[in-house]
Amino acid sequence: MEKSRRKIKIIFLIFNLILSLGILYFGYKEFNTYQNNKKSNKNININYNDINKENSKLKQEIIDKKDELNKLSDINKLIIEEKENVFKLASEVEHKIQNNESNKKIVYLTFDDGPYYNTFKVLKILKDNKVKATFFTTNVNGTNCFDNSSYNCHSIYKEIAKDNHTIANHTYTHGWNKGLYSSASSFMNALLKQEELIKNYTGLTTNIVRFPGGSVTAKGQKDAIVDELRKHNYGWVDWTAEDGDGRNLSSYNQGWSMLKNTITDNIEVVLLHDYHPITTQILPDLINDLENNGYIILPLFYESVMINK
Ligand SMILES: [Zn+2]
């Protein structure tokens, strides 16, 4: 009896031991699973935080890029603003020069009657020398360049604009001996037609005019034309110096000495023509000489003292 009781007790103890071990094993397993889950949840959280961080970083990058793009699309505005600042400063310097308060000198290089195919050469020289000039344009060449009939000269307008030179108006017809000056309205028609052409090819508007042949050619119509120009907010300018390429320029030396004889004041407007091969030949030396003699070379602007209003 005693023996079988002990046996039962032992069996009971063994059973208890197995049960406890079982509970411990399953408990441990559960705990482990729980811990693993916790760990992976944490990992998920970490990953989620990373993604969030990455996401906002990307969002910021997109915003930055958009800002950059906005800045780029405002580039024309920036250039215009920068030009305005340059012209404001130039205007102050001009007044100081005129009042003998500055020893600076300014020269405006102007090219008439283009664009021609040769204008490409002129643009290259100006670019190589980091110089901005003024182009008084007409439609004389039309879609067939005078100096390269297979080339469309209209496509050169945008090249002049791209290089930030001043594009000015020399009338559509240039017909100084073909009725251009028969009345103020005939002049204005040719002027506004050229304005439209420039606008079409460059998107720009102009506010500086040069009379074909010079203002003296307008004779009795000059005052009436000037009144019309004022009404339309145009200024106008003749020239104070030249190399004679609009007349009978036949050699480098002839052009050079004419320039030397006419560029004498502290503010000069030089008349040149962008078709002339001798002018193209002289141009790099002229720029060099002007700069060595203390001249600042600038493109014309409406507020300049040289522009009649
Ligand atoms: Zn002309």
Structural overview:
The protein has helices at 2-73, 75-98, 119-128, 157-162, 184-202, 222-231, 252-262, 277-292; strands spanning 105-112, 134-137, 166-169, 208-209, 235-236, 241-242, 267-273, 295-298. The protein folds into two domains: 1-71; 88-298, TIM Barrel, CATH 3.20.20.370. The chain is of the alpha/beta class and 309 residues long. Helix 5 crosses helix 6 (222-231) and helix 7 (252-262) packs across helix 8 (277-292). The strands form two sheets. Strands 1, 2, 3, 6, 7 and 8 form a six-stranded parallel beta sheet that branches. Strands 4-5 form a two-stranded parallel sheet. 54% of the residues lie in helices and 11% in strands. It is built from eight helices and eight strands. The mean pLDDT is 89. Zinc ion binds at residues 112-113, 170, 174, 212. Residues 112-113, 170, 174, 212 line the site of zinc ion.
Give the overall pLDDT as a whole number.
89
CATH topology of the largest domain: TIM Barrel
CATH class of the largest domain: Alpha Beta
Q: Into how many domains do the coordinates divide?
A: 2
Report the portion of residues in β strands: 5-15%
The number of distinct helices, counting runs of at least 4 residues, comes to 8
Named at the architecture level, the CATH assignment of the largest domain is: Alpha-Beta Barrel
Give the helix level as a range of percent: 40-55%
Main sheet properties: 6 strands, parallel
Low-pLDDT residue spans: none
Inertia-based shape? elongated
Hetero ligands:
zinc ion
CATH homologous superfamily designation of the largest domain: Glycoside hydrolase/deacetylase
How many distinct beta strands?
Answer: 8
- What would you call the structural class? alpha/beta
Question: What is the ordering of alpha helices and beta strands?
Answer: HHEHEHEHEHEEHEHE
